[in-house]
Amino acid sequence: MKKQVRFVLRHVVLLLLAVIWLVPIVWLVVTSFSGYKGINTAHFFPQTWSLDNYITLFLKPDSVVQYQAWFTNTLVIAIFTCIISTVLVLMVAYTMSCLRFKGRKGLMSFSIILNMFPGVLSMIAVYFILKSLGLTNSHVGMIIVYSAGAGLGFLIAKGFMDTISVSLREAARLEGASEAQIFWKIVIPLSKPIIVYTVISSFLVPWGDFVFAKLILNSGISSDWTVAIGLYNMLNKSLINKYFSIFCAGGVVVSIPISILFVIMQKFYVEGITGGSVKG
Amino acid sequence: MKKKLLASLLTLSMVAAMLTGCGGAAKEEAPADTTEAATEEAAPAEETTEAAESTEAADPVANLIAATTDTVSLTVWASEEDHTLTTELLEKFKAQYPDVTFDIKLGSESESTAKDTVLTDVEAAADVYAFADDQINELVAAGALQAVSATYTYDVAAENVAGAVEAATVDGTLYAYPMTADNGYFMFYDSSVFTEDDVQSLEKMIEVADAAGKKIGMDISNGWYIYSFFQGAGYDLTLNDDGVTNSCTWNAEGAVDVAQAIMDLCATGVLVDMGDEEMATAIAEGTVVAAVNGTWRAETASDAWGENYAATKLPTFEVAGEAKQMSSYSGYKLIGVNPYSKNVGWSMLLAEFLTNAESQAARFEARGLGPANIEVASSQAVQENPAIAALAAQAAYATPQRVGGNFWTPAETLGQILASGNPDGTDLQTLLDTTVEGITAPVQ
Questions:
Q1: CATH no. of B186-329+387-439
Q2: Per CATH, which fold does B38-175+333-371 belong to?
């Protein structure tokens, strides 16, 4: 009897938490199908349902909604950042994990401390450096900013590579393999989980970033924006009443690629994080 | 083999990224060079303009065209709602000067936030941008506005209403081109609920709305609107000569009656404190039948109320048994030219074009915004527009918005406390003293 009460209580608490957690998301999704364009605070579920918001997003761009352009911009930036960051992270991780050189420990501690500083602190400096190079309002500038410090985030990948047996590398070296060959032919094939993890995490940074994007893309030309800035702009007080449900639809759509990426790579993802944490 | 492919792909993409990186930089450098050249050209262009004016020999516009050899690149910032119209106007502008190649980009920046964005980095801001007149002091202080020392096509100071010109002037120098003269608020109402007599007094309106089971909306917890009560009852809020701090008499003798009056009005439950967005929804849904708001809500109200859509000056309200006319802020939207522009001459010409009589008339027709141009404002169509007429009726009781940044937060807090019926039971005099202390606080 007592057991049953506990069971019920536990599940009520869980249910409550789940509801609290899910309500905003459900609201966002149902509002994205609303026929009314503004914020409807009087009803939770929209009174009229329609697909108009999604149609506007993709097929009827106006001066406010240029979703296709934003989506493409964000995707291009995210893909390039992802490639560059992944390469940098793997190279640094390999260096730190498998090579022995003077000052390795010192360099490692230094870069870990450096990585702990929040990036936003350097925002203004980054802006003025980009401006002097003429890279503000350019996607190249953004890719550089997002991927420049990526190498510092090597710690988890390094931890993973530490778990790859040293004897494998020694055997390869005895066979006459160069350092590059060991990296490409021995370590990389064994590091698949951590590569997946690195790809996802470095894709997420530019995909969801607002602060740097807003700072760098300051010309006000809306076709240059990323999704985050474009959606934020719809919340402008003079626009919110005409675009709120489209904003919700945009929010739903932007989460789709990430969700797909996660579902596909989920298995590797878990393996990657836990694998790397065994030995750090 | 697959690995090799991956490896080469990775290297290739890296090389590609590096190449595009360099390419981008090189491309950006090119305009930087021409920039200097353009500035050099722009300067003599201006000189010739002045020379032309002094001798009255040649047309300044012709001089400007003659001095221009390269493509004229300009960036214009207009609010999102103004985009369609501005795009049309820009096309017309280009068509007017067929000999010059233009590269005009239109960015979006709301007039209400232009100052914040411009001041983040004036050099990176647009060449021509629209802003609300209350931002002009800070924009001038930051050197973000080019003085309108000479005009090309029309006399800005003479063709616009005096209030708008005054709003665009700082220390006797004209710094901007008036675009609209309707940035104020008044009363919208549904004439099927209220008669013209009802809307003369707020108490009467509340009575009528209560009987109909409807609400009246006003953004009381917003300094911009709560000002109307205090100023209406004769308590002042002014900007000091330093241009940033305020003087305020909202805690003077008798001001507690005003605070009490606001509380009493809200206590009826009919006058409801609601923000602009909420109000729009409520008007559309029919719960709100009268609202204090501005021309930007005219469309919402006329859509919801149809034929019964009406607007008038703000009503009176009772302070200690005496009826006082509510005051309001009058505001203007202006267009300014960035002095860091590479083509100051063309920017000024474009700003003139965007604010000339024809463009103001087009703006009124397309968006119902009240023109600042005297001729357009006196046209029949403008006179017959209910919102503009209400604004004109309210103008006698309105004051231009000149207030330092420290006003907003304390006033908002005061509004919230009064609208919610002073839940902590704070002594009203103490409450007003605290508010005034916040409003008049020095700026660090």
A1: 3.40.190.10
A2: D-Maltodextrin-Binding Protein; domain 2 (3.40.190)
Phi, psi values for residue B105, rounded to 5°: -105, 140
If we measure between CA atoms, which residue out of B371, B211, B190 comes closest to residue B283? B190
- The Cα of B320 is separated from the nearest Cα of chain A by a number of Å equal to 36
Amino acid at A143: I
CATH 1.10.3720.10 residue spans of chain A: 63-277
**pLDDT tens digits along B277-311:** 889 888 988 899 999 998 888 888 988 999 999 99
Say if residue B43's pLDDT is above 90.
no
Instruction: Find, among B80, B326, B325, B81, the residue nearest to B218 by Cα.
Output: B326
Mean pLDDT, chain A, whole residue set: 87
Distance between the two ends of chain B, CA-based, in angstroms?
67
pLDDT band of residue A64 (cuts 50, 70, 90) is: confident
Residues of A in contact with B14 (CB under 8 A): 83-84, 87
Interchain CB distance below 8 Å, A241 and B117: no
B38-175+333-371 and B186-329+387-439: same fold?
Answer: yes
ipTM of the complex: 0.73
Q: Do B17 and A87 touch (CB under 8 A)?
A: no
**Chain A contact residues (CB < 8 Å to B):** 38-42, 63-64, 80, 83-84, 87, 127, 131, 133-136, 138, 140-141, 143-144, 184-185, 188-189, 218-222, 233, 236-241
Instruction: Taking each helix axis as running N to C, give the angle between helix A192-208 and helix A139-148, from 0 to 180 degrees, rounded to the nearest 10.
Output: 130
Judge whether B76 and B107 are in contact, CB under 8 Å.
yes
* Residues of chain B with C-beta less than 8 angstroms from the C-beta of A181: none
Domains of chain B by residue range: 38-175+333-371, 186-329+387-439
B/e letters for B126-165, b = 16+ CB within 10 Å, e = fewer, are bbbbbbbbbbbbbbbeeebbbebeebbebebeebbbebbb
Report which listed range, A41-55, A262-276, B45-59, B89-103, is most confident. Answer: B89-103
Backbone φ, ψ for residue B216 (5° rounding): -115, 130
| A63-277 classified as CATH 1.10.10.10 | no
Picking from A218, A242, A244 by the largest number of B CB atoms within 10 A of its own CB, the best residue to mutate is: A218
Q: Do A237 and B117 touch (CB under 8 A)?
A: no
Residue B110 is predicted with a pLDDT of 87
DSSP A185: I
